[in-house]
Amino acid sequence: MPDRPSNLPSRVTVEDLLRLKRAERPRPEFWEDFERDLRQRQLAALVERKPWWNGLSASTGRFGWLRLPVGATAVLALTLLSVREYSSSGGHASVALGNKPVSGVAASPVSTAFNLVQSAPAAVSSSVLAVVEPESPRSAESSEAASERPQVSSREVAALVTRGTGVDEMGISTGREPLSGSLSIDLAASGTADSTLADATAHSIGFEDRSISTSRAHRTAEALPTAVAVTEQRRTRLLAALGSAGVYAPEPSAPEHAKRSVIRYLAEDGWDRSMSRLQADADRLSIRF
Amino acid sequence: MAFTKAISKTLVVAPARQQQADADLEVVRRVQAGDVAAFDQLMVKYRARIYSVIYNLCANREDAADLTQGTFIKTFQSINRFQGQSSFFTWLYRIAVNATLTHLRKNRLRTFFSFERITEEDGSSEIIAALTDKTGADRETFVKELQEKLNEALQKLSINHRTVVTLFEIDGLSHDEIAEIMQCSVGTVRSRLHYAKQLLQAELQPYLR
């Protein structure tokens, strides 16, 4: 083993090894290329177009520490503003729907019940208003009287009217919830054919007094089942008359249709053809296709 | 707080460093006044050190050259914003370190080493001689192997730990300067340095005598 030089370190540490990294240097000619490339990149950087927000961020660089609090405040303000706007618009809508007095609506000039019948709006609330709206010229004086009475909202009237009726657009009782527009159409048909029904309905929804009060609404709820029963009788009578004349032939229901098809099939020779495909031997059954 | 920090900085900064900072500031003022050619003085003065820091952080000489050029271009472009609140070299180092950290985070999955040759000066030859004397291996092969192991061990450190080790052990900056460059406390710098050295010691145990 060769003699150890006196200047060699007796112990090699991590710091000594890391000092070796200082000796990792590029050759001198590297710096010539480096400078040339740097000049080229500097020139390229001069002509390079920067996006507009670079200048903005540079100009606001001094106030960069304000970005976070300002941004957070802006987001908070926006959120509060949105919530406030949303809640205020929702509040107005509920007031308009819930607190609109019927007496004000009753002042609308609609002269006859026939006009009422011709309008068949789709929306429940608007059709109920149409039911309530028909007025004679006496409406001006009656509106003053109505203002003294307890006011009923249009929504309550709609609930009362739709609860009492069970008729659809063809006047046929169905399981689904009836619409007041349907009631209008049914009234049109019954207005000419059955004066009793028209009278009962008009009475029930307060046409006589041209206004609606709470007591009238209760009477409406009591009278409407009677009107429905009358409608049912009339429908049965009409269907029977049409059926006997051969004009009306109701389409069979699905189970009835299937039953008829099976009967027709068995009556024809299709069954025989099917059976002829089967051939029974002593101990086997063969099917011919 | 700022006053205390300024006092401590004044006490810690060595006179030589302070002179150097003053000289740099003078050159920077000239560049800001329109003497663009004066920037070359700053570039020639600091290019090797900046390159060394970046190279030791990313262990790739092509990337290091590219990032060093980018650092000087960015420094030149924003030199009008330098107000002299810190020394120019601290500001320059901060730009270089931030650019390198951004590059490393972007290319975390792409690791490719290319090393510079170890020049046997500044005491490195004694360390290599001591190691080869003990192992008895071929010198050139041993130096190459040691360089690879050393870089591998450094790359196993996290970016922040690697930066602290590079700035303190390789570039010879003080704790305060590193804290200013990395924008953290001196305690954090010391803690990171201690932890990084422990890891390096474990990794490089076969070479430690």
Kindly report the greatest chain-chain contact and the residue count on each side. A-B, 33 and 50 residues
From the alpha carbons, calculate the radius of gyration of chain B and give it in angstroms.
19 Å
Q: What low-confidence regions of chain B span 5 or more consecutive residues with pLDDT below 50?
A: 1-11
Structural class of chain B: mainly alpha
Instruction: List the strand order in the largest sheet of chain A.
Output: 1-2
- Annotated CATH homologous superfamily of the domain at 13-116 in chain B: RNA polymerase sigma factor, region 2, helix turn helix motif
Characterization of this structure:
The complex is a heterodimer of chains A (289) and B (209). Chain A has 289 residues and is mostly helical. Chain A has a domain at 102-243. Chain A contains 14 helices and two strands. Chain A has helices spanning 14-22, 28-47, 52-59, 67-98, 102-106, 113-118, 124-132, 139-148, 154-164, 180-193, 195-204, 214-245, 254-267, 270-276, and strands spanning 278-280, 285-287. In chain A, strands 1-2 form a two-stranded antiparallel ribbon. In chain A, a hairpin with a 4-residue loop joins strand 1 (278-280) and strand 2. Chain A is elongated. Chain A starts with 13 loop residues before the first helix and ends with a strand. With 209 residues, chain B is an all-alpha fold. Chain B has a domain at 13-116: Orthogonal Bundle (Rna Polymerase Sigma Factor, Chain: A). Chain B contains ten helices and no strands. The interface between A and B is large, with 33 and 50 residues.
